[in-house]
Amino acid sequence: MNRDTLQTTLAQLQTRPTKSLGQNFLHDETVAAWIVNQLDLRPEDHLVEVGPGLGALTEFAVEQCRSATLIEKDGRLAEFLTERFAEKSQVEVLHQDALEFDLRKLFPHGPTKVLGNLPYYVSSQVLFAFTADPSPVGRLVFTLQKEMAERLSAEPSTKAYGAITLIVGRRWRVRYVRTLPGSVFLPAPNVESGVIVLTPRDPSELPDCDGRLFNRLVKEGFAQRRKMLRNMLASHELDWPALCAAIGAEETVRGEALSLRQWVELTRFVEAAKDPAAFHAKAQDVHGEIFDVVDDENRVISQETRSKVHTQKLKHRAVHILVFNTKGDLFLQKRSRYKDANPGRWDSSAAGHVEAGYDYPETAARELQEELGVSAPLELIGSHPASRETGWEFVQIFRAEHNGPFTWPRAEIESGLFFPVELLDRWTAARPHDFSNSFLASFRLWRESRPNP
Ligand code: SAM
User: 445 with 389: CB under 8 angstroms?
Assistant: First the structure.
């Protein structure tokens, strides 16, 4: 949309840019096309645009993707966009505050691409919302106030480097790709803008650490930039010389001099100091586990090690537990990428094998405790016979009610979230490969066991 069209459109709508909504409209079509190109859209992609305004970016983006959700807070503009893109059946315009948008709706689309020339007054909140863990987003291209874009992409020991660099940077790679002068917008803001591209960081790039503790330590460490980190983190009563030796830093170091990797190592050190037993507890020695082997009628006939049971496809027993909150949403866990079976897939709230000498209900209670850190009454809702689909397991499925919060072993579970059941209906139908087969079977069984609402 060029400057003339923009001005004519605003006049036709009998409206002017609203300052309180951060309305600075892009009128340079070459720049708009260039920004959209950074999103690397493919014909199969779903796009979300935050604050589409009059559609300066949208007009290029919707031509390159399968479907789009446009979230615009200004009712006049949302109405205009609905008319403008009416002939595109796959474009949905939401008259909504982007901070109230439920990102879980995006999971059925697969990794979504997100675009936005963000209103400055709310840009950091939008950024945090769209990068929260777990995120259905595969790539983001945001135009922000230049200073903010620089902070997000800053290097250690620079003025721009701070808590936000690290908190976002631990899970996302951030690239600063272009500076835009105020003159490409109408009205022109009196500061420059910066365009950044965010892509999810491969978890294997950095050692694993407790994300919540990391965020807390980073905020504490940067609360007063000029002070030594030793003083900023004094309340944790750490063995400071040992910590500095472990992370390779001077004892007088300031937070701003530590790299992302050093902050992660520092978090691991604090985690180990606070609860050494939990930190050093290795993932269970699963290969040594002994399972009951059963016959075609699920009667115990022998005991074998886990590895033999799996390599020889011997029939054995397992439990799946579906945990619902009081709203009726179902909690799913995302399996760790390092699991040997179904890595990175979404799975039942908790699940596990029945070990030799234990029964199904005892195992279900133990798995709920070990995987989610809670206990709750369990109700048996059904079972599956052993088959190739269940991995030769006779599975019993239990239901429990709990509102969380849950704590899970990070070696086993990457993250978890409650999902509305109707959303899971759509998601499992659209992208069954996002889930473990045994969850799909358990979910189907639970769905069939209850009348439709
Ligand atoms: N994308 C358009 C462009 O490049 O010309 C408009 C960009 S303008 C900087 C920001 C847009 O975000 C405006 O259309 C404004 O109405 C909208 N907006 C402001 N606050 C919003 C919010 N909380 N949620 C969604 N949209 C918002």
Answer: no
